[in-house]
Design a protein that fits this description.
By secondary structure, the protein is an all-alpha fold. The protein has one domain. The protein contains 15 helices and two strands. A two-stranded antiparallel ribbon has the order 1-2. A hairpin with a 7-residue loop joins strand 1 and strand 2. The radius of gyration is 20 Å and the shape is globular. About 50% of the residues are buried.
Length: about 350
């Protein structure tokens, strides 16, 4: 909004020329999202506590310690993230950029699905929210609309192609399979973050790390000079997503203030589904879907642990892990919660660095 209002006046007021720079507006988005979360967070938490007397329902089949340490903590804290993220993006991004609106569609759409899921869990007083098939159908619908939109506004030959890391000239034309592939990326990323969100602060820092990485990727891919120098596939207009990523970093940092152990509020599906979907959508637009697997490697590990556990139990009747997702396995082994969280943060940071290395290794 500020860009659209103030940048045309830059010829008359030179200081307003700052609003033409994506880097300046990204910094503004980070600080705005952070301040909004700090200011609104306490009020939102009080409101959630007033309406969630018993807090989030705790799974009886989960770690026994959670029945004592997590009981009474409200959920739906992802609303704080969505509030800071949306306000900052609308304030600092170029609102004529369709990529920004496509990512906002996924973020808010997945957030709405997560909100419905959280709401049903609270009203029914158990950990079962939306029926699994209905929830998946809603996520696929939102992701498919966004995928078709992105496919329409992205110029050929990138509109329906998959870029391969390390191979500068390789583009795999997916044709009309591309929307299905994009849906898999967005829905998969969304649910991977959701599976990771099981301990205080565990998911939000890797989300912040991934958002910071994709802020850089968006800037480079959307800049002709840098894209050519690094031999990346140039996507015109995608640089504006750096502002969105900056807003996500700021909102995540603000939410962490309230989610740090011991958490005052849980992210819930409202937050985890929305931020995961947003990362998936950005990776699709910037043609770095495969790099997301590396940058978000921690989310992948958590998801794979669940898949392996289910397949092993169904085929052999035995469990590979003491409990899935992976962070619960280490809880059962006696690791303290802060130890698991911080070590998983370190792993997320290392994997993000590996993912970023693909920008130069061509």
């Amino acid at each position: 909004m500020l860009y659209n209002l103030l940048s045309p006046l830059a010829s008359d007021v030179s200081v307003l020329n700052l609003f033409r720079y994506i880097t300046f507006r990204t910094g503004g988005a980070v600080m705005t999202a952070l301040v909004v979360c700090f200011l609104c967070g306490p009020a939102v938490i009080r409101w959630l506590k007033a309406r969630q007397v018993h807090g989030q329902p705790i799974r009886t089949d989960g770690p026994e310690s959670h029945l004592l340490t997590k009981m009474g903590t409200p959920t739906m804290g992802g609303f704080i993230i969505l509030l800071g993220l949306s306000v900052a993006t609308l304030l600092w991004a170029d609102l004529t950029n369709q990529y920004v609106w496509a990512v906002l569609l996924v973020t808010v759409g997945f957030g709405a699905v997560g909100f419905a899921d959280d709401y049903l869990k609270l009203t029914r007083r158990n950990h079962k929210g939306l029926p699994g098939r209905l929830r998946l159908l809603l996520e696929i619908t939102v992701a498919l609309i966004a995928a078709l939109w992105v496919m329409r506004i992205t110029p050929a030959p990138l509109s329906d192609a998959l870029a391969v890391p390390f191979l500068k000239a390789v583009l795999i034309n997916l044709g009309w399979f591309f929307p299905a592939f994009a849906v898999i990326v967005m829905v998969g990323a969304s649910n991977a973050v959701n599976l990771t969100d099981g301990l205080d602060g565990l998911a939000i820092v890797p989300v912040m790390i991934a958002a910071g990485c994709f802020a850089l990727i968006s800037y480079l891919v959307g800049n002709t000079v840098f894209a050519n120098y690094l031999q990346l596939h140039f996507v015109s207009g995608s640089g504006e997503l750096m502002v969105f990523c900056g807003a996500l970093v700021g909102a995540s940092l603000g939410f962490l203030w309230f989610n740090a152990p011991p958490a005052m509020v849980f992210m819930g599906d409202t937050g985890s589904l929305s931020v995961g979907g947003a990362l998936g959508a950005i990776s699709v637009i910037t043609k770095h879907e495969l790099v997301l697997i590396m940058i978000g490697g921690l989310f992948v590990l958590e998801t794979v642990s669940v898949i392996v556990q289910v397949i092993s139990f169904k085929l052999t009747g035995r469990r590979v892990f003491r409990m899935a997702p992976l962070h619960h396995h280490f809880e059962q082994k006696g690791w303290a919660e802060p130890t698991i969280v911080i070590r998983f943060w370190i792993i997320a940071f290392i994997l993000a660095l590996i993912g970023l290395s693909t920008l130069k290794l061509r």
